[in-house]
Design brief:
The chain is of the alpha/beta class. The chain has two domains: 2-37; 64-296, Rossmann fold (3-Layer(aba) Sandwich), CATH 3.40.50. Helices cover 38% and strands 19% of the residues. The protein is built from eight helices and eight strands; from the N terminus they run H-H-E-E-E-H-E-H-E-H-E-H-E-H-E-H. The longest helix has 32 residues, at 2-33.
Amino acid sequence: MTRSRAATVTRRSLLIGGAAVAVGGAATAGAVDRGLLPGRTSMYRVLGLNGSAGSIPDVAPVPTTSGTFTSRARGGRTVGWTIAAPESDAPLPVAVALHGYGDDHRSFFGRALGWDRFLAAHVAGGGAPFAIAAVDGGNRYWHRRSDGDDPAVMILDEFLPLIARRGADLDRLALTGYSMGGYGALRLAGALGADRVRAVSAISPALWTAAGDTARGAFDDAADFRANTVLGRQRELAGVAVRVDCGNGDGFAPAVHAYVDGFTTPPAGGFEPGAHTHGYWRRMAPQQLAFLGEHLGR
């Protein structure tokens, strides 16, 4: 009798304990999601809340052309570039694509993000055709640095004329990017405004709400951060179609929430399961390209 009672108590304890763990896990996830607890990325990974990784479509990619040029704006650096575009007899609108930290222009294509294949699938599905033009910006966060390296001026004064010579329609221009490039796309679109840019889309933009929180090397100092942050400058994007996507398990999510909340009219996109990974960026690629095609095709 004693053994049976002990076994019953043990089973009840396990059932109650399991329920408490489930409730506690949900509460913890909610607290992490709201930024109330540290360890966002680790907690979402451990709890399996980041969702599935996206896969590159099994289709033939659109044609690509690559090359290099010597950039005066970047202090004489050799800069690589790739343009991916479907076949067309007329000039195509173009989305200038800005890569993330540690990557380069090639990261948008091939096995990394596969946007040359996503673009082919987009066009085959009836989406408006456009070109994707990616260029190297180094790890300089797409703005002028104290050593004179200026990836933003490189885009404006060197890369845009290059893609125009290759047939791009710069009257229909968009900017896009992920991570560091997502920040860069939002900043540059705000600087150019609706007179130059039709749309901007950012995936997991690398944003911070305070200079003291930034990654080493993202800005020269606190003054550089204040001069180039996009938070508080959402009005600069008035008249530009804006899309911002970020995974709930991304360490940048709290700052991205603050940025999105600063718009009078919420931008397209939103927050869903995902981490700061290529898998999440591939999952979001079809929606990103559909958004760009919609606004560039008008």
